Amino acid sequence: MHAKAQISVDEAITTRKSIRAFKPDPVAPETIKHILDVAARAPSGTNIQPWKVYVLAGAEKRRMSDAVLKRREEGPARPEFSYYPKKWFEPYLARRRKVGWDLYGLLGITRDDKAGMWRQFGRNYLFFDAPVGLFFTFHRDLELGTWLDMGMFLENVMIAARGQGLHTCPQAAWVEYPETVAAVLGLSPQEQLVCGMCLGYADESAIVNTLVTERAPCEEFAVFRGF
Predict the structure, then answer these.
(1) What are phi and psi of 132, to 5 degrees?
(2) Separation of alpha carbons 158 and 168, rounded Å
(3) What is the CATH number of the domain that holds 29?
(4) Where does the pLDDT of residue 78 fall: very low under 50, low under 70, confident under 90, or very high at 90 and above?
(5) From the CA atom positions of the chain, what is the Rg in Å?
(6) Sign of CA dihedral 184, 186, 187, 188
(7) Which of 49, 191, 195, 214 is 20 to 30 A from 153 via CA?
(8) Rounded distance between C-alpha atoms, residue 83 and residue 63, angstroms
């Protein structure tokens, strides 16, 4: 049993981070339902509430892992959309490189250790040992604004999870193999896979979870006028 301490909104936001090692402790369905009900207060254009969520645990979660790991060994990924730019440029390239090498440095994976990188990235498909995996979709006929709505909903899920003493890791990795994920979930042809997410209790003893990513101060990205 995990005692849940009340935390402030600021603390929920600032303590949210992508966890890559979880304890096996189960999360009660009632807690997950609470998180999703809270997250559903996210804004959406004309309140259409476009999100759909698939929540996996136990044998169903293992079935997803097995299917995608098998597919991963069979050939190159075939994502439906490009999450990242086709050509990187600054300052985004430097930020991407830093977080990557900070992570691999903690794990002792060197720049020429391609096999180590492959194995570490593959842990995405084990949900980093989290007891719960979530998948998010919306109807394909909706437009660009729905991606914004989904982003706000996803953030709400992660912040509401912190309010319950839980941690998460949002995962774009699953969209590398959309057909496999769709087959396991039984998605209709109209459903667009957005991403996956791990949910559970962080393993605070794992060195990978000591990674703290940097954030640019608002002076670098905000423009104040009229003050």
Answers:
(1) -135, 135
(2) 6
(3) 3.40.109.10
(4) very high
(5) 18
(6) positive
(7) 214
(8) 25
Residue 2 placed within a domain: no
From residue 218, give the alpha-carbon distance in Å to each of 5, 99, 215, 221: 30, 20, 9, 5
Which pLDDT tens digit goes with each residue over 58-76? 999 999 999 999 999 999 9
Kindly state the helix (H) or strand (E) to which residue 142 belongs, with its residue range: none
Global pTM reads 0.95
Q: Residue 71: give the domain boundaries.
A: 9-220
Domain count, the chain: 1
**Residues 120, 110: Cα–Cα separation, whole Å:** 12
What backbone phi and psi angles, to 5 degrees, belong to 107? -90, 0
Phi first, then psi: give them for residue 217, nearest 5 degrees.
-70, 160
Residue 4: band (very low, low, confident or very high) from pLDDT cuts 50, 70, 90: low
- In tens, the pLDDT along 97-131 reads 999 999 999 999 999 999 999 999 999 999 999 99
Q: Could you tell me if 179 and 78 are in contact, meaning their C-beta atoms sit under 8 angstroms apart? A: yes
| Mean of pLDDT values over 12-17 | 97
Indicate whether 42 belongs to any domain: yes
Evaluate the omega torsion of the peptide bond into residue 91 and state whether it is cis, within 30 degrees of 0: yes
Give residue 1's pLDDT.
45
Residue with tokens 């709400």: 156
**CA pair distance 163, 2, nearest whole angstrom:** 13
Q: Answer for the pair 186, 215: CB distance below 8 angstroms, yes or no.
A: no
131: tokens are 């007891």
